[in-house]
Amino acid sequence: MTLKMPEPKPDILARRAEIVAALRAIVPGEGVIDDLDGRRAYESDALTAYRQIPLVVVLPDTKEQVAAILVWCRDAGVRVVPRGSGTSLSGGALPLEDGVLLGLSKLNRILEIDYDDRVAIVQPGVTNLAITRAVEDRGFYYAPDPSSQIACSIGGNVAENSGGVHCLKYGLTTNNVLAVELVTIDGEIVRIGGRALDPGGLDLLGLIVGSEGLLGVVTEVTVRLLATPETAKALLMGFATVQGAGQAVAEIIAAGIIPAGMEMMDRPAIHCAEAFVRVGYPLDVDALLIVELDGPEAECTYLADEVAAIARRNGATTLRASRDEQERVAFWAGRKAAFPATGQLAPDYYCMDGTIPRRRLPEVLQRMDRMSDDFGLKVANVFHAGDGNLHPLILYDANIPGQLERAEAFGSAILRLCVEVGGVLTGEHGVGVEKRDLMPEMFSENDLAQQQRVKCAFDPDLLLNPGKVFPTLHRCAELGRVHVHRGQVPHPDLPRF
Amino acid sequence: MCVHRPNDEQALGALISDAAAAGRKLELRAGGSKAQIGWRAGIADIVDMSAFAGIVDYDPAELVLTVRPATPLAEVEALVAADRQMLGFEPFDHGPIFGAQSGHATIGGVIAAGVAGSARPFRGGARDHLLGFRAISGRGEAFVGGAEVVKNVTGYDLPKIIAGSWGRLAALTELTVKVLPVPRETSSFAVVGLDPGRAYRAMARVQGSTADVSGAAFIPMQAGAPSRTVFRLQGARPSIDARTETLRAALADFGATDEIDGDVWETMRTLAPLREQAVLWRVSLPPKSFAAFVERLDRPWLADWGGGLVWLGGGDAEPVRGAAELLDGKAMLIRGGGAPTFHPQPAMLARLEERVRRAFDPAGIFETGRFDAH
Ligand SMILES: Cc1cc2nc3c(=O)[nH]c(=O)nc-3n(C[C@H](O)[C@H](O)[C@H](O)COP(=O)(O)OP(=O)(O)OC[C@H]3O[C@@H](n4cnc5c(N)ncnc54)[C@H](O)[C@@H]3O)c2cc1C
């Protein structure tokens, strides 16, 4: 791997036995994994190109144990990498050679469900889908629905501020979480946020969500529950050109319709998915659009007619509306299988996650096409069309020397392009180690220094998940000294975002 | 005390870094519609931000608007309304609440104060709609947070902490907000005569149904008029019609559901029934605590957000904050009294907040005493 991680501390490596013993004193029994095979199971998350066997793995059963582990690690100067289910696509849970891997999987209980105020309080290791499963028979659900929802933990969702196909209408994790319990590196157990909205203090909760395990360890999450919509209807629409599909999306929004989901696939993705699941996607189109409407039957039918009219106006060549739940699920099957489907075309794929202003889509896809030729690697695109979040899937074969490096270079070029057209490096998968070194594409040194000062407010010794998010982690004392000369706003000529 | 009026970021940065070096305090001011919240301790210079005004970029199809903070809220609202869009968090002007003219509130002010209207529980608050910003920190340095697209998780989500920070972290010079389409139609409904306990149950029942309301508020009995528990439905007509049936069914146990005009939402924005009150509290609560809270305090009040927000006229800090505290709520002092503006935080959280404030403003120049007891 080409990635540079923080230099392991030799004294910590040398004290491994002592560290293991200390953790065993805090978490008795099976909760400390010391043997090589056991540790190897944690060597990577879903970004499998990067691997590192951790110093030791600890799986606490209680928040008090989490607190004791963190205090001990702070006092001993040991780094800590929190981990939920290990489905991060950005290497957020990549272990450190000299770091304790702190797994939250045993904290997996649903603590309280309040149907009157429509909230659930759960431990971080509860999976995203388990929350919905626990409340669906009463007609409720938890809205953010990452495709990994069967496996990913709510603690990981909070750390990554995860989204899903329905976040256009219902928001990301940050818009659906009311409170967390956070254990700081000092072992303090703090409740941040609450059931009362906008209570007046600083919105620390907003900072914690999306902080990728760098500010503290989440040991409890209070989420909002919503009433499950009565019906959902999906429209499947094929377009001869990406422009046509893009224009249809713009007109749907302009008509004041915010669909529950609005997904686009390009030609390679359509072909891949159809070959894999055979749901009858049209193969003679350049873009496929799936628009889902939810609400009362009357609303879905009414708006579906409007969406269909917009699609026709913009040259849709196929247009099908789901007649029942089975057909709706079938429309989605190909989209949901897009990732594994690409696995049919190439042994490995690399999933990117930039966001662009929607209007730039045709241009971005064209340039990506040219890059695909330049790098000699194929790419298929699935796109959260409503909010501009693009998932190019780069196909490669890690067994062919040089292809992994080329895939990474292609990926970086795509993300630079996203920033160049006014977008961002990551829409929902997080920075992790993957996009860490690209952060200066989007942020100036000042911007990054300001973000790091926030890190220092929580973790002054930089022990929590170092090597993630920040391309260079300055010592906190150094950051305090950096100062700008009077009136000299650095880089005044840089573009705004 | 003097008033500075920097014209650009360069001048603002210089002003701030000079103040930091000299140990002076600065209070950021745009329209002044909320100037009466807190008090003037007299230790700070005023920074008049009015030069930072104007629309930078508005792209209706992207649902994104970039604007300078001192732009009047009314101007922003008119701009997006022309494209049948709106600010989804329904910010409002505090002017009328203080008996002043409306029209002075600015977009930066309502974001910095985290002002959100009746749709808050359903469409999110200022925090949920601020996508990106540009600002000068307490070190005098320009920096950005967030971005100009609706979906972004690159780096810490600084817009969240800037929204509602009341100018205590940095001086905003530009902000990008998400906009939403204006619902095509709106209908409002009321059930009369419920007591607070029953009203809470009715609001909870409705919000747990698929009626999908965008407003649920309660106006207590006053001057002989019975209480009203009110709901708002928005969307396309066929959708509202279908959901009206759902709403009526959900409320069947509570009495007849009558359609009313929409003035009631204006009442919730201007708090007209509480205008004469010398002291005004804004109490955020778990909705469940609503009835227990209002029954403890014999004062005039209005409730919004399904019971999650109580505007309370009068009452001393101790009983109001005590009752809120007991019920997991927080009471913010909006007008009068002499108590600290914000509900005191538990010690551990207060220390954490302090450290975060220092991360943006190491010398504490934005801490003007405005929100302290006096
Ligand atoms: C097939 C597939 C599909 C996916 N689809 C989506 C999608 O549609 N949308 C989307 O947004 N993401 C998606 N993801 C990415 C991933 O599932 C999410 O980022 C998820 O939130 C990670 O959760 P996790 O429990 O696996 O966390 P992990 O991978 O274990 O950890 C992720 C990060 O969170 C930190 N962390 C974990 N738990 C805690 C805690 N309790 N306290 C503090 N920090 C913690 C870790 O340190 C790490 O930085 C997908 C992944 C896969 C493999």
UniProtKB/TrEMBL annotation, chain A:
Cofactors: FAD
Domain FAD-binding PCMH-type positions: 50-228
InterPro entries on file: FAD-bd_oxidored_4_C, FAD-bd_PCMH, FAD-bd_PCMH-like_sf, FAD-bd_PCMH_sub2, FAD-linked_Oxase-like_C, FAD-linked_OxidoTrans_Type4, Oxid_FAD_bind_N, Vanillyl_alc_oxidase_C-sub2
Domain of life (superkingdom): Bacteria
Keywords from the named record: FAD, Flavoprotein, Oxidoreductase
Pfam families: FAD-oxidase_C (PF02913), FAD_binding_4 (PF01565)
Gene3D superfamilies, alphabetized: 3.30.465.10, 3.30.70.2740, Vanillyl-alcohol Oxidase, Chain A, domain 4
Protein name in UniProt: FAD-linked oxidase C-terminal domain-containing protein
Organism field: Sphingomonas natans
TrEMBL record, chain B:
Organism: Sphingomonas natans
UniProt xrefs under InterPro entries: FAD-bd_PCMH (IPR016166), FAD-bd_PCMH-like_sf (IPR036318), FAD-bd_PCMH_sub2 (IPR016169), FAD-linked_Oxase-like_C (IPR016164), Oxid_FAD_bind_N (IPR006094)
Annotated keywords: FAD, Flavoprotein
Lineage: superkingdom: Bacteria
Alphabetized Pfam families for the sequence: FAD_binding_4
Family matches, as Gene3D superfamilies: 3.30.465.10
All residue ranges annotated as the FAD-binding PCMH-type domain in the record: 1-182
The protein's name: FAD-binding protein
